[in-house]
Amino acid sequence: MNLVATLYKRFQQLIHEGAKFCVIGGMGAIVTLGGADILHNHLGENKYLAITISTLVATFVTFVGNRYWTFRHRSGKGTTHESVMFFVLNGVGLLIGYGCIWLVQDAIGLGGALWYDFANFLGLVFGTLFRFWSYRKWVWHAQPAADLNGAQPERLEVREPELVPPAPSSWMSPTPAPVVQPANGQGGAERWDGPRHAG
């Protein structure tokens, strides 16, 4: 149980982002696959044009969902930069979809509406994995200063050093009075209290 809790705590942000991304990605998948199917199989559009149009529509849907829900706690470099990078990376994802269509229908030669839908699904899977990785790396960056709940990390309290008075110099230190032997050589030592003045 402790291991599960430790792993969850360690990958908490990745799990939350992945779950939200899957929800938004599911909406985009419906638009992409459904739009391509309608445009190509029912309206007779070119297979590459059909997937291009449907992907562009899905890109707008997923941009809004990912920016304002999935990655809302992450920082970006402004709306213009985020938009440009988002559409560029979606263009790369679209090229992945093109590659899957070409591989299934042109290279292998599996024609028909069913194989076209399968090729689009395959491209969507690989394209989605690429998008999730690239969004986190290049579009919306992690904010180490805040966790998922927006809480600020604990700050280390810096205390001012305590002022310690300097040790007294040697000339200020009291010196023991010298011990002087009496002149008659009798008795014990007596303490010299300094010169005496005649009264």
User: What spatial order of strands do you see in the largest sheet?
Assistant: 1-2
Q: What's the average pLDDT?
A: 78
* Helix vs. strand class: mainly alpha
Helix content: 55-70%
The oligomerization state is single chain
Order of helices and strands: HHHHHEE
Distance between the termini: 96 Å
Portion in strands:
under 5%
Uncertain residue ranges: none
What's the total number of strands?
2
Can you tell me the overall shape?
Answer: elongated
Question: What Rg is obtained from the alpha carbons, in whole angstroms?
Answer: 40 Å
Biggest β-sheet description: 2 strands, antiparallel
How many helices in DSSP terms? 5
List the helices and strands and how they pair.
Layout: H1 2-10, H2 12-42, H3 47-70, H4 79-107, H5 113-139, E1 179-180, E2 190-191
Antiparallel strand pairs: 1-2
Helix pairs in contact: 2-3, 2-5, 3-4, 4-5
